TrEMBL record:
InterPro entries on file: F-box_dom, F-box_LRR-repeat, FBXL15_LRR, Leu-rich_rpt_Cys-con_subtyp, LRR_dom_sf
Assembly mode: Part of the SCF (SKP1-CUL1-F-box) E3 ubiquitin-protein ligase complex SCF(FBXL15).
Annotated keywords: Cytoplasm, Leucine-rich repeat, Repeat, Ubl conjugation pathway
Gene that specifies this protein: FBXL15
Pathway assigned to this chain's UniProt record: Protein modification; protein ubiquitination
Protein's recorded name: F-box/LRR-repeat protein 15
UniProt keyword Protein biosynthesis, yes or no: no
Lineage: Eukaryota, Metazoa, Chordata, Craniata, Vertebrata
Similarity comment: Belongs to the FBXL15 family.
Organism name: Crenichthys baileyi
Main localization category: cytoplasm
Residue span, F-box domain: 3-39
Length: 283
């Protein structure tokens, strides 16, 4: 017996090729016509494509060829293709893969709102979506996502600077099962968004507000009241958020990315003096 005599879809694809790195599989199809056919069967049945393991040098033609017959994708990561991937390449893939649960388009600056609308219309079972640094994401396309993907569990909207409170509030009302949300690096986001997220997404576990300069203590207190499962809160560079609102969360062991005032002062003093001073806290 030879390797290719084994059943392809029952043995070779699930028990051998599925354990090989994607770049090795791509190279394997150059061995012979039979191996090329085997790889095509594998690619058509592959449920996860993470192009970060191949690198940004993959040409458009190879991207199209790899995904042209696949209709069972569940996980698609495009991060390493961000330099060139456009709607023209992505829309056919989205259109024929209604079972996608996780899509990461972070940094894909050449896409447009049409890709997000396509995802929302085709992938109604979507649970995880990465849109960090996609400045083309606007309020209307996010509303479309919220209307059709109510089961969303996590979304990264870091530096999606077109978004304002009304879009985030709409998302919170429609996607109440959110567990992880990033609104970082968006100067348009205010307490209104944070409070709406807190009141509607009570199972929230992770929230990133880094650099949201208009967020204040009021919404952090609301977050503490309505989100008992919160595990992580990022508020670095949120200059209007102070320890008075963070302290109740610290007492619940919520991981917060800014130090409390006293330890931070002690560290600075230690750096200045070269040793840790003894301070009698009972005075």
């Amino acid at each position: 017996w030879q390797l290719l005599d084994l059943p392809w879809e029952d043995v070779l694809v699930p028990h051998i090729l599925s354990y090989l790195p994607l770049q090795h599989i791509v190279s394997l199809q150059r061995v012979s016509k039979h191996f090329h056919s085997l790889v095509q069967v594998y690619l058509a049945n592959c449920r996860t494509f993470n192009f970060s393991v191949i690198g940004p040098s993959i040409p458009k033609e190879a991207f199209r060829a790899m995904l042209k017959d696949n209709k069972v994708l569940q996980n698609l990561s495009l991060q390493n293709l961000s330099d060139w991937v456009t709607d023209k390449e992505l829309l056919p893939v989205i259109g024929q893969n209604q079972h996608l649960q996780r899509v990461d388009m972070s940094g894909c600056a050449s896409l447009t709102r049409h890709s997000l609308v396509a995802v929302s219309l085709s992938c109604t079972h979507l649970q995880h979506l990465g849109l960090a640094h996609c400045e083309w994401v606007d309020c209307l396309s996010l509303r479309s996502l919220a209307d059709h993907c109510g089961g969303l569990r996590s979304i990264d909207l870091t530096a999606c600077r077109q978004l304002k409170d009304d879009a985030i509030c709409y998302l919170a009302k429609k996607c109440s099962e959110l567990k992880s949300l990033s609104l970082a690096v968006n100067a348009n986001i205010t307490d209104e968004s944070v409070e709406e997220v807190a009141k509607n997404c009570r199972g929230l576990e992770q929230l990133d507000l880094t650099g949201c300069l208009r967020v204040r203590n009021q919404s952090i207190r609301t977050l503490a009241e309505y989100c008992p499962k919160l595990q992580s809160l990022r508020v670095n560079h949120c200059h209007n958020v102070t320890e008075s609102s963070l302290d109740p969360l610290r007492k619940r062991n919520v991981l917060i990315d800014v130090e409390p005032p006293l330890p931070r002062a002690l560290v600075l003093l230690q750096d200045m003096l070269g040793f840790a001073p003894f301070i009698n806290l009972q005075i």
